[in-house]
Amino acid sequence: MIEGERGLASRMLTPAELVWLLAAVAKGDRAAFERLYAATRAKLYGVVLRILRRADLADEVIQETYIKIWTSAGQYNPAIATPITWMVSIARNRAIDLIRKKSEVPIEEESDAMDVAAETPDPLAGREFSEELKRLLACMGKLDGERQRLVLLAYYSGWTREQLAAKFEKPVNTIKTWLRRSLAEIRECLGS
Amino acid sequence: MTFEDAYDSDESLAAEYVLGTLDADERARAQALIETNSAFAAQVQYWERRLGELHAMVEPVEPPAQTWANISARLDGTTQSEQFVLPRVDEPFDAAPLEDNVVYLSRQLRRWREGTLVAGALAAGLAGFIVISSTAPDLLPERLRPKPRVVEVVKTETLPKFVAVLQRDAASPAFILTIDIENRNLTVRRVSADAQAGKSYELWLVSDRFPAPRSLGVVGDSEFTIDNRLMAYDPATITTATYAVTLEPEGGSPTGAPTGDILWTGRLVQTLPGARSQRSP
Asked: Which of A42, A104, A160, B89 is the right S-S partner for B60, CB 3.0 to 4.6 Å?
């Protein structure tokens, strides 16, 4: 990660470094927490902004996310998740819970969302993918194009089946079946 | 039967919960299951780990500068859960500013990677490193041999946590209670009970040790904690009681006893110590 990316993203530390920081944070080390924040804030903000599409909401969610990380760093278990996937999960769950309560938040602006969907397994220049990500993308690559877009759009945008149905111009039940089948196939391909 | 027929509906719920396609009620149901069903929680962890890798393709965006100040200000008054299970490692950070540190770290890490032993240890989340450095330090490259002893496993003691899901049927949890027995803290989260104008939901403790239900107070609009109400009860009473919610006049029952029908009930279950370890909020 560090060697593969420069500039902004170079502040992203390796998993082992983030584990150290989380360990220190769990002991109440504020300096470590500030480093953790500096290393991960742009990633987490990027993730939630994509879902929430409003800077004020994203700001609110990011604050809550880091408070949660501060208070529950002691529960982080490196055997179960990498630090960044753990933190991303906290942030995404907060963002999705919030947007489900705020139905007035616009869900259009598809151009941005579709940009993300376009970022399928393409060899993204200069990026260094983890082995886990490569494996996931290989498995997602076995889905047909529309299903790939469906899963990626769902993940990055946090859309409900109804919203996806409108986007893909399919009945909700079809979307439900597609999602279920796609996830089952991904799981089958990934193994445990 | 194809494999997807065998794909259990809870598995599907867990996967879609992580993917983010569930509506508010389904998410509440999934969150209740995470609290109470360790197999389900493990499914969620599986998908969070797997799909979480997709974050790599999201472009980082800088949050507003003010955000950190706000977070920092909010740290006061928070308490941390003390159950970190990682061994403490001699951290390679020094007092240098962050940017320098990162460069330093990346250089150092690159050097570390040259040793296959160490690369393996890093991949194993440091566990291997600890084992090697404590049992056979000579196997490590010079730089990594433990100077001071770095092995100090933080003693962990996981206090039991109790959760009750108040519901009428499995698909519709209405309230989730979390009880911290040691501090007698009770947290009530309303998940799918609609607010009723001019009415309040009131929480009751029902125990065969008492002739009548005991009020635990009115449930607020959002997550909140009642600090003291449970202080009057011993742990055995708390853990064996049934919890119930009734709809009462605004502000709670005027008589001190339930006046409305019991709408939701539930009993406490002890969550497995590990079950919540990776749970997201």
From this structure: A42
**Is A41–B62 a contact, with Cβ atoms under 8 angstroms apart?**
yes
Q: Is B57 on the interface with A (CB under 8 A)?
A: yes
SS3 letters across B32-80: HHHHHCHHHHHHHHHHHHHHHHHHHHCCCCCCCCHHHHHHHHHHCCCCC
Closest CA to A165 of B45, B23, B17, B252: B23
Strand ranges (E), B110-190:
161-167, 173-180, 185-190
More confident position, B21 or B179:
B21
Residues B164, B239: Cα–Cα separation, whole Å: 10
Q: Best mutation site among A187, A188, A190, A192 for testing chain B: the one with the most B CBs within 10 Å?
A: A187
ipTM score assigned to the predicted complex: 0.86
Vertex A77: Cα angle to A34 and A27 (nearest 5) = 40
Read off the pTM: 0.59
- One-letter identity of residue A156: Y
- In terms of DSSP bridges, do strands B173-180 and B161-167 run parallel, antiparallel, or are they unpaired? antiparallel
Cα dihedral sign, B101-B106-B107-B112:
positive
